Amino acid sequence: MHIHISSKAKIGLNVKLGHNVVIEDDVVIFDNVTIGYNVVIRKDTLIGEGSIIGDNTVLGKEPFRAAISATTEKKALSPLILGKYVTIGANCVIYRGATLKDHVFVGDLASIREDVQIGDHSIIGRGVTIENKTTIGRYVKIETEAYITAISIIEDYCFIAPEVTFTNDNFLGRTEERKKYFRGPTLRKGARIGANATILPGIEIGEDALIAAGSVVTRNVPPRKIYLGVPAKEFKDVPTEQLLENQDYYKG
User: Fold this and answer.
1) What residues pair up with 100 in beta bridges, in sequence order?
2) Which of 3, 79, 111, 226 is the most exposed place for a label (fewest CB within 10 A)?
């Protein structure tokens, strides 16, 4: 079994390490953490108590910047921080500068970029991509293969179904003027997005609103309304029994 642990790393009690683990300088790993095979933990990363890291995952990766990237900055980033009892699946890449709070679950093959914040008890599904400068609240569920573009906001208790696409560039890569207007969607508390829906740049989905599967959202959506279609239009009110305040799991 080959393991490389920097002499500057701090490893807690009862930490389990798989084969071929690399732990760089100034990494801090708290007690009762389990790390799978072929995991790379880059410098300064902090892993909270009781966390689980799946095989072939990279934690604390520095972003590479394409020459024409409009949202990736060349700057010093704070360390990657994983809270207590975080689970990271196999083959994930979590970048330096991200923070995942306690009890966050990340499925296999997910990618979470720099300057991303994810609140307690949120679930990031298999193959989800979360781009940089995005904020995600508590008790959020983002399902398989959803794409969350840069500079998006997702508040507490939102639900995002598989294959949902967020966008942030109304100019589709043309003109320098576009850089003034980059902004992903904002989902207010308890908003829900159906499978394969597309949300255009800068759109705000109101609290407890629902977007039907396959819809294309081109305008702001008021709270507690159901929108559907291409382009999405108002259909009816969200049924009272579906409102967040009436769910047993809602903690306020």
Assistant:
1) 82, 118
2) 3
Q: Are 84 and 103 in contact (CB under 8 A)?
A: yes
Residues in the chain: 252
Q: What is the pLDDT of residues 171-203, one digit of tens each?
A: 777 777 777 778 999 999 999 999 999 999 999
Largest CA distance in the chain: 61
DSSP state for residue 153 in the 8-state scheme: E
Task: Say which CATH topology domain 150-252 has.
Answer: UDP N-Acetylglucosamine Acyltransferase; domain 1 (2.160.10)
Identify the architecture of domain 1-62+78-130 in CATH: 3 Solenoid (2.160)
* Residue range 38-77, pLDDT digits in tens: 999 999 999 999 999 999 999 999 998 766 666 566 788 9
Burial of 252 (0-12, 13-18, 19+ CB in 10 A): exposed
